[in-house]
Amino acid sequence: TLYLLYTQLGLAFLAGVIFAIVLIPINRQIALKIGQLSQGLMTAKDGRIAITSETIAGAKHIKTNAWEDVFLNKIERIRAEEVGFLSRRKYLDALCVYFWA
C-alpha cells in the first residue's frame, strides 16, 4: 500500500508515514495512562460497592442511629473519586480516537 501511495502522491506520502510513526510512542504513553486510570477506577468502584453493601446490610442500625448522612457522604465521596477517574480515562480515549481516526 505504501507503493501505491508513492505512485499517487510521490514523496508527499512520507509526511503521513512519518506522522503515523511519531504517533506510535505517544499512543503508547496514552494507553499506559489509560491502564493506570482503569486500575484506579476499579479500586474506587470496589470501595463504593463495599460501602454500599455495608450500608444496605446495616440499614436498620444506620437508621436507628441516624447515620444516613455519614454513610451518604462516604458513598458520594468515593463516587466522586470514581467519576474523576472515569472522566480522565474517557478524555484520553477521545484523544486516542482523535489521533488515529
Describe what this molecule looks like in 3D.
This protein has a domain at 33-101. It is built from four helices and no strands. It has helices at residues 2-9, 13-57, 59-64, 68-100. α2 packs antiparallel against α4. The chain is rod-shaped.
Inertia-based shape: rod-shaped
Q: Average the pLDDT over all residues and give the rounded result.
A: 93
What is the number of helical segments per DSSP (H or I, 4+ residues)? 4
| Tally of DSSP β-strands | 0
Q: Could you tell me the radius of gyration in angstroms? A: 24 Å
End-to-end span in angstroms?
18 Å
The percentage helix is over 70%
Could you tell me the strand content as a percent range?
under 5%
Give a quick precis of the structure.
The chain is 91% helix and 0% strand.
Describe the secondary-structure layout.
Blueprint: H1 2-9, H2 13-57, H3 59-64, H4 68-100
Helix pairs in contact: 2-4
Question: Which key phrases capture this entry?
Answer:
101 residues, mainly alpha, 0% strand, single chain
